[in-house]
Design goal:
10 helices; 0% strand; mainly alpha; globular
């Protein structure tokens, strides 16, 4: 049932763009299609739709929304480096934009996921200073603590793992 609703939404947005290629709701139709594609599980087409919104309407709310959702879709898809690029671009181009707070926090998450802990922690501190009562303040504080704990955790030696595996096959894996 739900899949059919998403398909209908995509079809109607395509129909609108076909009949009104310069219509005032063209950008809105791209964003709606991207969200419907994403909700139906078609991340690739959702990314294409968000990219088109940003590429064709960069100075509008739809271009801004397209770039933000592009980063979010890529982050949720697991394309961390692309998500980082999109959020950095959003934060540069739309520093006072509607999604700035969200984008900044998601950039912190993306940096943490890519194990770039120093930059993630710096961004988290910046986020908490900039938005002391922000929507993600508690999550930012928790993430900062998690990063600190990860950096203090003793690391395993690759040399020891290799030696263990040389002596007893599989023992290096157990060690790590």
């Amino acid at each position: 049932y739900y899949m059919g609703e998403y398909d209908r939404a995509v079809t109607e947005t395509k129909r609108y763009r076909f009949f009104y290629p310069f219509g005032e709701r063209y950008g809105e139709s791209l964003i709606l299609a991207g969200r419907a594609y994403y909700a139906s599980g078609d991340t690739g087409k959702s990314i294409d739709s968000f990219q088109e919104a940003y590429r064709t309407l960069p100075g509008t709310i739809y271009g801004e929304e397209g770039l933000f959702y592009l980063g979010k879709a890529r982050l949720l898809q697991g394309s961390i480096s692309f998500a980082v690029n999109n959020f950095q671009e959003y934060n540069f181009v739309y520093e006072n934009g509607y999604f700035y707070q969200d984008s900044l926090f998601l950039l912190c998450l993306a940096r943490a996921f890519s194990e770039n802990y120093n930059e993630a922690d710096q961004l988290l501190r910046y986020y908490m200073e900039t938005f002391p009562e922000g929507e993600y303040y508690d999550s930012a504080l928790l993430l900062s603590r998690m990063i600190e704990a990860e950096q203090e955790r003793p690391k395993k030696s690759p040399l020891a793992a290799g030696l263990y595996s040389a002596v007893i096959p599989g023992m290096g894996y157990v060690y790590t």
